[in-house]
Write a structure and sequence with these properties.
This protein is α/β, with parallel strands linked by helices. The protein contains nine helices and ten strands. Helix 3 (about 100-110) packs across helix 4 (about 115-130). The longest helix has 16 residues, at about 175-190. The N and C termini lie far apart (about 50 Å).
Length: about 260
């Protein structure tokens, strides 16, 4: 098989905030069309890693390449690269004074230079994809949290990204609203979208991910196929984390 340029390639990535080293030498790649779920305890560096991919956080050292382009090269057009990368956050970050359709078209028109008609057509296609074709005139305050997050996904898709980053997209949602958002993400995965997902939804990681990466203490501790990492973890730290997450009511042995 011919070599393919990695969708994401991370080498020797370190990130410090002052004296606190959050990422301590990360190396891994994401292939085109691959879905990689990053799991681990709070404070393990998962979200910082994700934010380094599109340089929302600037690495202290190491390299991050997206589609063969070094994101840390001071001469690259960072804005142009970010247009190729969709990102969905824990919070929805919708403009409260704009209706749903305008939330989806404003960046298309101002950043991509699309006309109103084209932007509206693309926005409506993506609203239909996330199951909200009938809510284009609604304002964010009129939507549930799950609906707002689906609008945020549709907004990111409307920019035509080749890569989607998700930073715990369901963590701010009531449990009954999580399924709709995960359903949209499953559909994107089925359609071949390259995705890097920081999540605490182990069922989603098991069913949808091509690969699961377990982080702890700013390092990748274990990675592999979901059936290996989640069902048969080898590292004691992974085993302890999954025991707490998957069986929260079980009595844990004292340290």
């Amino acid at each position: 098989m011919a070599d393919m340029t990695a969708a994401i390639e991370i080498q020797g990535l370190h990130k410090s905030f002052g004296d606190v080293e959050v990422l301590r030498g990360i190396d891994f790649t994401v292939a085109p069309g691959e879905v990689v779920c990053v799991v681990g305890p709070s404070g393990s560096g998962k979200s910082t890693l994700l934010r380094c991919v599109n340089l929302l956080e600037e690495p202290t050292s190491g390299t991050v390449t997206v589609g063969g382009v070094d994101m840390t090269d001071p001469d690259i057009d960072l804005d142009a690269m970010r247009r190729r990368i969709g990102m969905v956050f824990q919070q929805f970050n919708l403009f409260p004074h704009l209706n749903v359709l305008d939330n989806l078209t404003i960046a298309q028109r101002r950043v991509l230079g699309r006309g109103r008609e084209e932007a509206g057509r693309i926005a409506r296609e993506n609203l239909a994809k996330v199951g909200l074709a009938d809510r284009e005139d609604s304002f964010p305050s009129q939507l549930s949290g799950g609906q707002q997050q689906r609008v945020a996904i549709a907004r990111a898709l409307s920019m035509g990204p080749g890569l989607m980053l998700f930073d715990e997209p369901t963590s701010a949602l009531d449990p009954e609203l999580v399924g709709d958002v995960l359903g949209v993400m499953r559909t994107l995965a089925d359609e071949g979208m390259t995705m890097m997902v920081v999540t605490h939804e182990m069922g989603f990681a098991r069913d949808v991910a091509d690969r699961v990466v377990f982080m702890d203490g700013g390092r990748v501790v274990e990675e592999g196929a979901p059936e290996d990492v989640l069902a048969r973890p080898e590292h004691p730290r992974t085993q302890a984390f999954l025991a707490r997450v998957l069986h929260p009511n079980a009595v844990q042995p004292e340290a």
